[in-house]
Amino acid sequence: MASTDPILHFFTIMESQSGVIVKETPKLDLDLYIANYRGRTCFDRLLLIGRSSVPLCVDALKAAISEAKKGKDVQRYRDAWECIRIAAPNDPESQLDTAWIDNTEKANKMETARLEAELKQYKNNLVKESIRAHIVGIAKHLIGIVLQRRDWPSVLANVGKMLTGGMSDEEQKAHQPFQKLVTGIANLHSEKFYEAAKNFLEVGDPSICQGCNDIASSNDVATYGGLLALASMDRSELQSRVLDNSSFRNYLELEPHIRKAVSMFVNGRYSACLDILESYRADYLLDIHLQPHLPAIFSAIRNKCIVQYFIPFSCVTLESMNKSFAKPGESLESELITMIRSGVLRARINTIDKLLVAVSTDDRAEMQAKGLEMAKNYEREAIERIRRMNIAAADLEVKGTRKGVGNAMSSISGETWFDDTRRQLSQGESSAG
Amino acid sequence: MDQALATCLAFPPEEPLNDDVAYDQAIQAHLLKLTKLLKDPPVPLSQYGGQLLELTDPEYNSLSYLAVLHSLCVPNLAGPREFVLVKLVKFLLGFDPRQIRYAGSHLSEILTAVCNGSLLPPAAAVEVVSAAILKIDPTGSMFTSTHLQLAKLAYNTNNIDPVLKVVEKNIVFYPGMANSKRPAMLCDMTLSPSVYIHKDTGFTNPVKATSVLEYDLLSGMMFCSKRDWEKAHAAFERILTFPTRDGGCSKIMAEAYKKWVLVSLLSKGKAIPIPQYTGPAAAKAYQILGKPYKEVASLFDTTNAEELRSEVEKSSQIWQDDQNVGLMKEVLSAYQEWQIKNLQKVFSKISIAEIRQQTKSAQTGTILNSDDDIEALIHNMIISNSLKGVLEKNDDGTVFLTFLPSSTVLSEAEYAQELAKTAVQLKALEPIFKTTNERLGTSREYIKHLIKDQKRAADKSELDPTMGFESHVDDEDLMGGVTSTA
């Protein structure tokens, strides 16, 4: 009891900071999971799990502390310590290791001074040539940094830079996994799901991708690529780009459930597909890149499932919709209303006979209405243009005072007047033609 | 008296005047005689004017009739009131539009007197002036100073129905347009109204921008009182997009903008962006001055009735100052109707009870008290044709609404007919377009340009040391060049 209380306290604080909290036990094994990565991302991932997952909290935080102490970043150690201090106050890790901090800070300072001195020296010697030779390496390094700073536009910009250097096909191939991977992550965070999905699907050679595990693991590529493809592609595209994609198949083998979910979707077994994804929700929520976007991704997939489910029917009972998609005892109606309002689902609800009815688009009627509307607009526009020309000709425009509001204002308005008349005249000409 | 009568009856002559030239000559001559008679009558006209009116035909001898009537009505009514006024009405409803083109100022003066309200009761005055305006210009496309007088009279005395046929016309011509050509013969019935209606022919006085704006504002408000929100919307839009220059914007434009925002809610169910061709300075002014209105508008499209209600209540002083209390009330009462209409985007059939739960009244901020109330509301909407649907009853007694498709498929023939109708309307624009084109095409500035252009073209054929550079620049300048002369 005594040990759960601080955790409860800790997550109350996390909740007040509007952090995501995952109560369910994920399927992942923390040690195996983190062994997939190297470098700074390990700590980031551990800290995120520690701050989000109730069952894994203390273990993850402890691992984060030991990870932080392996490195030189004092601030990281402090961040992790701040958490464990509250979550597990009785553990030895909750004691601040001031000796380590002092030593590391001292060492860091010396190292910084040395590097700055070196930098100055290099600058003075103008060894730019050798810098240029390593442009790809530098770009990669920069991307690693901006990625950690979560500066997504800069990631994309630096990837662009990386590509501008003349590269042989061989080199290009070698860099492709890294480049696609970081672009995908940046696109994911910019909520461009379709682009991101394409990036992950094109990562390419798994053995090279393995080397990028300071950013993401091959398992992650499978998960990101599969989920985002489900969220943004239609059935035929899923089949051709995901299931029939020979290079991506290597990744899917690492996460068979994703493969299963995708093929369920393609085969029209939507509720089974959703069930699989739902059972992995906790795992996805503990992923550093998926966490902020998971609700959007899941709801996109769900919407797509509902829309796809409904396509072959002109009319479905709400009961069967509920059976397929709603949680037991709940009704789908409000979700359907939201989907219809936002235009995702072209259907109407019949609450009397409890039906979801497809909107029968009468192309003919639509075309007719459009035609008549266009003719009407044309007439109205023609009249308005002639009217405006004649108002100008009769010198009846409402005129401003040039002195009135100040010089800046009057010069702006003077300009716009010219623009205005010009537009009218050119409109007049176009209506003449 | 006999001599005067003979003069009056002399036009039109018995033998028909075959062409415009003969007509013009004859009527000019007649005009001289009439002028002499009026200027220098042997006996004052007031004594036997009544008899003359009795013996001449207002529809046949319109010009003479007008001359006599004018002298009896302007500046003050002379002769037996009842008698003259009956004649006046008869004349205004029946005059020959061709003859009176030669006495525009006399007719205008009479119309002005009628509009001042001193002669006829307002209802009759609006009726006859509207008729007269459309007799002078059946297309109704030319604005005159009389238009504004009429609109003021109609709005202020609440005689709106008879004036609708005038204010519903699309006005595209305005007095004082530069380079309007003088007509060779006023009697030419193919003339565009912009040619024979002119301050020189007396049919209108010079007008200012404010007159045009005021006329549209009055039109808009009249459409509002007829609850014709579509047309009111168009009228207000004409004002707020009125051409401006040098950062101009007037008070009427800002007033119209406020009304326009509210009327958009009533006619379209939501706020719509202002047209792109709005003057930029005006657009900026609307943004600041119309803020409380925009706030109301942004709430109208939401399901938050309570907030809409309190927002409207909060600024009640503003609505009062702007004289928009009535419109605002309309907005509040229309809110729930639009909510119900919007349900058809989601539902095909829905029970009355559910509608009651899902829509609120903006007048109270809550749902209606009973299902009967909502049923009555929907019933009225269906009757007034603002909602397409039917109310039905289930076996278990549930009353529900079935929405019907808004557009029905037309047969090929019907569709062709509809299109043909539009084509005819577009065709009707042709004379307007032609007149405008002619006027612009013959303007001094345009011709100057044309000559310059031709010269340049001629020069170009000779050896050009600048390798065509200059002409290239000037080509581009052609667009801007026309502008600078405007």
UniProtKB/TrEMBL annotation, chain A:
PROSITE patterns from the UniProt entry: PCI (PS50250)
Nucleus as UniProt keyword: yes
Sequence ranges assigned to domain PCI in this UniProt record: 189-363
Coiled coil stretches, renumbered: 105-132
Location(s), subcellular: Cytoplasm; Nucleus
Short name of one Pfam family: PCI
Keywords per UniProt: Coiled coil, Cytoplasm, Nucleus, Signalosome
Family (UniProt): Belongs to the CSN1 family.
Protein name: COP9 signalosome complex subunit 1
Species assigned in the record: Apiospora hydei
UniProtKB/TrEMBL annotation, chain B:
Coiled-coil parts of chain: none
Pfam families: COP9_hel_rpt (PF22788)
Membrane-crossing segments per the record: none
InterPro entries documented for this protein: COP9_N, CSN3, PCI_dom
Recorded superkingdom: Eukaryota
Region ranges (Disordered): 458-486
Subcellular location: Cytoplasm; Nucleus
Residue stretches making up the PCI domain: 231-405
Protein keywords: Cytoplasm, Nucleus, Signalosome
Main location: cytoplasm
Family, similarity comment: Belongs to the CSN3 family.
Protein name: COP9 signalosome complex subunit 3
Organism: Apiospora hydei
Organism classification: Eukaryota, Fungi, Dikarya, Ascomycota, Pezizomycotina
